[in-house]
Amino acid sequence: MILARTREELADALAPVRRAGDLLALVPTMGYLHEGHLSLMDLAGENAEFVAASVFVNPLQFGAGEDLHRYPRDLDRDLALLEGRGVNLVFHPEAQEMYPGGDPVVTVDPGPMGDLLCGAFRPGHFRGVLTVVARLLGLFRPHVAVFGQKDYQQAVLIQRMVRDLALGADVLLGPVVREPDGLAMSSRNVYLDQARRKDALGLYRGLMAAREAFASGARDEEIIDTVRNLVRS
Prior knowledge:
It contains 9 helices and 6 strands; from the N terminus they run βαβαβαβαααβαβαα. It is an alpha/beta fold and 233 residues long. Helix 7 (152-164) links the parallel strand 5 and strand 6. Helix 6 packs across helix 7 (152-164) and helix 8 (194-215) packs antiparallel against helix 9. The longest helix is centred in the last third of the chain and has 22 residues, at 194-215. It is globular and about 60 Å long.
């Protein structure tokens, strides 16, 4: 497995892939990998001959007071996991390599879709996400780019950006991978103590209860009450 830390090293590693005409898949990550990420590597391998992953904690998508500097990192572990999953190339740049002139002046505006849901509470987050993804797509020029459905709003915005800006990659989405108790796998789960993990599970269980209630004929306030009672318990 090739480890590229600079754009020049990345270009050198990709040159023979382009000459051979192999299909190239890219899986962007911020590292501290779990089985959810690794399932995306598998999906990439099913759709391309050459699989590349990026491991880059993107400062543009962190707001003031967020966890940029304490975001969990373990590159050696990540590399071992990726190599075990058959990944051919890992791009792990420093921030100054990714953004050599500092924060980019030109960024990707997510439009009104970026102001809803998660975006309403994290202003600028999706602008940072789309900007780094667009940059990675420009550096790699992959045939396929793979993302997870766990960050669903992000995945929808990336699909829309690639379509609206004609960026040329086929965007594939992998399903959410969950822990045995139902909690969606996430690098940030390491932050959760027992009480917060229970709270996190309450939302998932509430949504599942809402689906069951709807299938049983419940509607409107009855469903809302079902979810509210379960989440509060």
